[in-house]
Amino acid sequence: MSEPEIKPRDNLQDHLREVQELLHRHKLVETLVHRQDMPRHDLVEGLVHKQHIQELTTRLDEMHAADIAFILESLPIEERTFVWDLVKAERDGEILLEVSDAVRETLLETMDRDELKAAAGTLDADELADLAPDLPDEVMEDVYQALDLEERAQLRAAMSYDEDAVGALMDFDMVTIRPDIRLEVVLRYLRRFAELPDHTDQLFVANRDEALVGVLPLGKMLVSDPERLVSEIMLTDPVTLRPDDKAEDAANAFERYDLVSAPVVTANNQLMGRVTVDTVVDFIREESEAELLNQAGLREEEDIFAPVLDSVRNRWTWLAINLVTAFVASRVIGLFEGSIEKLVALAALMPIVAGIGGNSGNQTITMIVRAMAMGQVDSNSGKRLLKKEVGVALINGLVWGGLLGVLAWWLYGNAQLGAVMTAATTLNLLLASSMGVVIPMAMQRFGRDPALGSSVMITACTDSGGFFIFLGLATLFLM
Amino acid sequence: MSEPEIKPRDNLQDHLREVQELLHRHKLVETLVHRQDMPRHDLVEGLVHKQHIQELTTRLDEMHAADIAFILESLPIEERTFVWDLVKAERDGEILLEVSDAVRETLLETMDRDELKAAAGTLDADELADLAPDLPDEVMEDVYQALDLEERAQLRAAMSYDEDAVGALMDFDMVTIRPDIRLEVVLRYLRRFAELPDHTDQLFVANRDEALVGVLPLGKMLVSDPERLVSEIMLTDPVTLRPDDKAEDAANAFERYDLVSAPVVTANNQLMGRVTVDTVVDFIREESEAELLNQAGLREEEDIFAPVLDSVRNRWTWLAINLVTAFVASRVIGLFEGSIEKLVALAALMPIVAGIGGNSGNQTITMIVRAMAMGQVDSNSGKRLLKKEVGVALINGLVWGGLLGVLAWWLYGNAQLGAVMTAATTLNLLLASSMGVVIPMAMQRFGRDPALGSSVMITACTDSGGFFIFLGLATLFLM
Q1: Partner residue opposite B245 with nearest CB, options A9, A334, A396
Q2: How far apart are the CA of B319 and the nearest CA of chain A, in angstroms?
Q3: What residues of A are in contact with residue B330 (Cβ under 8 Å)?
Q4: What backbone phi and psi angles, to 5 degrees, belong to B203?
Q5: Parallel/antiparallel/unpaired status of strands A212-217 and A261-265
Q6: Which of B292, B352, B366 sits opposite A366 (nearest CB)?
Q7: What pairs with residue A342 in β-bridges?
Q8: Are the CB atoms for A424 and A473 separated by under 8 Å?
Q9: Mutate which of A70, A80, A311 to disrupt the B interface (most B C-beta within 10 Å)?
């Protein structure tokens, strides 16, 4: 992708506003909707509109693909479709790669088979692999047939990896050189390119069997005497990735070692492709967004202008799970209805015990999950962490629980109720902290992602647990 | 930073395990603790230990600074301090830059003034600016005196910007060339460098007034005829940043335009410095982690081996806020104690209404906050989003609320109670969705970060609101 012609600073919002203005002021959308049954006397108005469409098209042509993607994501579906139709067909492919999954679906729906084929035809094998799951089979079939043998192999390779494996992040735009040539020859070889692939910060050095023997950073080449051999200058032990490595690990390596690109090699050290930092940045963003969305109980990224029913479906799962856990908590309360009838203050106080437990448990589990993701927790440190978290919970429980106990005493003039409140808060915080350590460690042991649903599970424990502890203690000591 | 000598794949965990083994098996820590009062007959054992210390030191010397940082973060404080003492003094600076803030504090505490000065002395001005807030004033004073005039100006510049401004991400390692020279001259000029600065993917082209007139990507230079002039090849309208731009916007630009570096210029287009993608990746990671931590009610990143009291302090704020909102909700219930006394089923059912409202509200607010962060929401789309969210809430409310109503009817044999349950659930979901849109939009209007505390606020609304709606309806229709 070439450098954008337009400075991004401030301009992105301006772009959006400009497009919206062109769309709204001249009622382009209405024109579009009514064009087919337009009466004769509207023809002049139609011509004016045509001029504005032309203006909009020109502006779109000047914009960077990523900026157009942003604008498409920011427009409601009707206007989005209209703008999408004005985009030059040969840019469809790169823009489809930039938009979010949810918006991509809405754009693909408006395209017929030939348009889809044309858009797919402009993409590299690795890009095609990203788009493939969203394309109809017959389109993919045609596109596949149009590829040459090498590209077909690349497409098959790229599609054979898990979404969260390095193979899925890999591209094939590498410049490969031999170790036994002089730098001057490399410089002459490079001049035969029309342009170097994006993010070429190093050349890959392979022997005649296509095995990677080193990398030659451009910076190192440029400061070296052109008479020297590649093999004298190259780094022989670069960071390499395997196609079935976890993408998360590759991202960590990029972050840790400040990489711009890294070669991907097979177990036999055969050079397969490379991963570049722009893909890694996108991956990191998507991961962290998925984590935030999951914590809030959204299954996936949502097009903010998605039809209501699509949104309902996206949020269904977690609401259902939440309903089940809430129902269980409700039945726990049901066990103690007799006690509540006798001392109705229990009903008012019990949500406090549950709530502070949930908050504290979420703090613990977030910290543990995060430390696990960074590989800093093993079974040794597990015990140590448990001890620490229980210590934190004990202090918090005694302090906040004590405060709550005094409040309850003051509100209801019942010292014993205050004591039960303090004890229940402390016990629920102890439960929260130990579950906050145990749940993610158990998830990891069973090979599950410790982050997934951790917040829901801990809250379920602290709700039901909190109600049970508080009402149980109350029944034992106050009835 | 140079390429690491060691491949990162698999090895990081191995490194950690190896260090831990060396530490544990030979009880190095105990040796350290008891060295001062070691009896004579332990001298032989001490010699053996010395040998293992030597082994550990050698291993550490071979490791990449980022890997040592990882190991330090993964070790409990006593062992961490011991390993830190074994690290070569000249590497202290770069490692301090790599570790998390919380761990950095524990490392700095162990260093005396001379060690701190020596460590700071190995850093560039922009790196020093990152470390400065953690260093004692007298150390910074000495370090500042040791800098040359240009470095002092750079340090002052870097420290004058907000943590979340581009100026704080900026470094000064640029290669600048003039527009009116031939590429061949540029190539010869570059050969005089011992090495190019990291992440040099483009040279900055400045005129004699140091105003930026373009950039020359290395890739473009390498494929061009060396006889041509820089001014013929350079890109004249690159993405540029201002030092007081928001770092978040710069990160978005890097992500959107797939940048490796970008020049930072003043309002007069004077070249000040540059931002590189490795800094941006670190920034993105830190931002998304801060967001996750805040959602869980943690004030800041926490050293997992922090002393209990430090952890208590970190979690205090949000627990206190949570306690206040829970107390308010409890008082709302208190208003209806009479009704609960008459119909104790209300106590068991009310947490369900509050809980599902909180879950649904968090879904809405997360989506809106995220769309806002990407600049996709203005006052126009605000109304549209509100309509959509209310629609989603209405469907969810009728479906789930209906289900809950039937359950309540079945459990308590009271059809009217079921109807109240359905109505209250629906109304609380409507409240949740509208507050989920209104709260972040109001925060933004008042210039606040819409993400901060959004989850706590929405949950406070849906808890108190849910209890009030459910118990209020029950009091009106069932009493």
Answers
A1: A9
A2: 7
A3: 348-349, 351-352
A4: -100, 145
A5: unpaired
A6: B292
A7: none
A8: yes
A9: A311
Q: Do A319 and B237 touch (CB under 8 A)?
A: no
- Contact of A341 with A437, CB cutoff 8 Å: no
Is B345–A329 a contact, with Cβ atoms under 8 angstroms apart?
A: no
The alpha carbon of B73 is separated from its chain's Cα centroid by a whole number of angstroms, namely: 16
Q: Do B381 and A74 touch (CB under 8 A)?
A: yes
Alpha-helical regions (H) of B343-414: 345-373, 379-412
* Interface residue of A2, A3, A199 to substitute, partner B, most B CBs within 10 Å: A3
Q: Which of A9, A95, A173, A475 to mutate to test the interface with B (most CBs of B within 10 A)?
A: A9
Q: Which residue of B has its CA nearest to A250?
A: B9
| Proportion of chain A in helix, strand, coil states, percent, rounded to 5 | 70, 5, 25
Burial annotation B13-41 (CB, 10 A radius, 16+ → b, else e): eebbeebbebbeebebbebbeeeeeeeee
- Nearest 5°: the CA angle B163, B165, B169 is 80
The tokens for B200 are 């040099």
ipTM above 0.90, yes or no: no
Reading chain A (479 residues) residue by residue, the pLDDT tens digits are: 333 333 444 567 777 777 777 776 655 445 444 444 444 445 555 666 777 788 888 888 888 898 899 889 888 888 889 899 999 888 999 999 999 888 998 999 999 988 999 998 889 888 998 888 888 888 889 889 989 998 999 898 888 898 889 999 999 999 999 999 999 999 999 999 999 999 999 999 999 999 999 999 999 999 999 999 999 999 998 999 999 999 988 998 999 899 999 999 999 999 999 999 999 999 998 888 888 787 777 777 777 778 888 888 888 888 899 999 999 999 999 999 999 999 999 999 999 999 999 999 999 998 888 888 777 777 777 888 899 999 999 999 999 999 999 999 999 999 999 999 999 999 999 999 999 999 999 988 888 888 777 888 899 999 999 999 999 999 999 98
**B84-143 pLDDT, tens per residue?**
999 988 899 999 999 988 899 899 999 998 899 999 888 988 899 888 888 888 888 988
Query: Are residues A352 and B326, on separate chains, in Cβ contact within 8 Å?
Result: yes
Q: Cβ separation of B304 and A225 shorter than 8 Å?
A: no
**Pairing mode, if any, of strands A271-276 and B271-276?**
unpaired
Cβ contact, residue pair B311, A388, below 8 Å: yes
Interface with A, mutate which of B18, B68, B266, B327 (most A CBs under 10 A): B327
Residue of B nearest to A226 (CA): B191
Nearest to B7 among A1, A73, A237 (CB): A237
Structural domains of chain A in order of their starting residue, each with its CATH number = 11-164 (1.25.60.10), 176-277 (3.10.580.10), 308-478 (1.10.357.20)
Q: Residues A39-67, buried b or exposed e (16+ Cβ, 10 A)?
A: eeeeeeeeeebeebbeebeebbeebbbbb
CB contact under 8 A, A296 and B363: yes
For residue B222 the two structure tokens come to: 């390498």
Closest to A387 (Cα-Cα) out of B30, B317, B307: B307
Letter for the amino acid at B290?
A
